[in-house]
Amino acid sequence: MTDYLKEANNPQNQEDFLNRIAAAADRPRHTLKDDPLVPVNDLPETTLAGKTQDELLAIAKKNSENVHVNFQVVKAADLGITLNNFIAEKEVKSLMLPSFDEQKWNDYSLGKWQENLQLDPIYYWEPSQGRQNIVNANASDAAIGFADFLLAESGTITIATYPQQGRMFHFLPTHYLAIIPKSKILPRSRQAMDYYQKAIQEGSLKTSNINFITGPSNSGDIEMVLIVGVHGPLDMEYVVVEDM
């Protein structure tokens, strides 16, 4: 695989490849610098523009429930109780949590919450465990994690992959709950990507991928019978913390 990557990254091979495509298409090559993208409209910037956070919350709730998400709004002081209720309702015996530092948990008023859980095992997604994290996630009844943003337009949560919360964290456990501050509700994907692009360029975010998750999977067979949760978690819950 390494040899293939070297060949693919060879500048002369890249030039030969692009020249071959241009010749086959019977048109000259061009670059973005010489032929800049001209948007056909300003919908990415103007859709839901000017909405207050309360208005975005109401839109996000409606659109999330439309994609079969259980949507809750709580205060930070009640978040621990909400998570405990989720664990009890789903009859969780094995739980996966992210391994963010103590400050992250304190920010959500969850300082010692996980230490009081009567569960065994509780898995933490640890960078040092490598692929064992994937095995643990697959063995977990549920995962409780932190989302970066909630997109009001589609009921989508966005989550970059972090060493403390890897990509399979969100897809392998049987049930899934995402915590989102109300202040992190955005109109749509454009605003989220503006943030990620800036963070990556500045070096404050280093990630291998960014997940856009719009509720549990929704699959329809040839008879148009909707089945929720065929791929990934059986169900999903968004908990918006309104005083953050």
Automatic annotation (TrEMBL):
**Gene3D superfamilies, per the entry:** NagB/RpiA/CoA transferase-like
At the top level, the lineage of the source is Bacteria
Q: Which Pfam families match?
A: LUD_dom (PF02589)
Source species, please? Limosilactobacillus albertensis
- Provide the LUD domain boundaries: 60-241
Q: What is this protein called?
A: Lactate utilization protein C
